[in-house]
Amino acid sequence: MTPLTRDQVRLSKRISLVLRHRPETAGLILDANGWVPVDTLLTALGVNRAELDVVVAGNDKSRFAIVTGPDGVDRIRASQGHSRRVAVDLDLPPSDPPAELFHGTPRANLDSILRDGLRPRSRHHVHLSADVPTALRVGHRRSGDVVVLTVAAGVLAGQGHVFHRSDNGVWLTTSVPPAHLSVKRTNP
Ligand code: HQG
Fold first, then answer.
1. The ligand 1 atom nearest the CA atom of 63
2. pLDDT in tens, 69-88
3. Which of 137, 23, 122 lies closest to 77 in space, CA to CA?
4. Hey, whose CA ends up nearest to atom 14 of ligand 1?
5. Are 57 and 8 in contact (CB under 8 A)?
6. Which residue among 25, 134, 165, 172 has its CA within the 20 to 30 Å range from the CA of 62?
7. How confident is the model over 14-31, as pLDDT tens digits?
8. What residue ranges define each of the domains in the chain, with the CATH number in brackets?
9. Residue nearest atom 4 in ligand 1 by C-alpha distance
10. Which secondary-structure segment (H or E) carries 45?
11. CA 97 to CA 34: how far, in whole Å?
């Protein structure tokens, strides 16, 4: 797939902002599950459907989902990553995770994470990756050395801890206690 142009990436980031963090900056109101009519988003952002479709289809992480409702209305939402300040319930079913999941983070966070466990901070969930390369990419969004932590997801699930898998393959959970974390690799 052709990579998005700089303008398209800018549009993608703007959509992430309004669908995950600050819908009010575009005058949008998300429904309880995070959806907004596509036409409403287009009007709010001043773009057309073709421009939106390119960004949704070409998005490197399939961040946005569009569905047609029983009323024939197309709606869009972010598949994950919402801020806690936005009251959205993705309404995802619980899902059995693989034995291990991964989390990439700047090394500067390591001591605190090993002490307190993984916390959702400003988001609804802790985000976990299904593989190490993805976890490394997540960690490298920020500057400095990256550490990948292994999450004993299978053991946690066995103890009743709930996991969800977003539509774009990100694993979500409310927290991970330190006892179920180990350092995978510190020098990628
Ligand atoms: C860290 C991107 C200290 C945590 C990605 C992370 C992901 C702690 C930061 C999605 C901590 C929160 C989410 C503790 C957690 N002490 N630091 N106890 N607990 N942290 O951005 O996982 O590109 O909210 O390690 O790909 O980095 O936007 O979470 O470094 O899927 O689509 O606190 O965002 O997706 O940062 O990234 P974030 P994240 P998009």
1. 32
2. 999 999 999 999 999 999 99
3. 23
4. 113
5. no
6. 25
7. 999 999 999 999 999 999
8. 6-78 (1.10.10.970), 101-186 (3.20.170.30)
9. 105
10. helix 38-45
11. 24
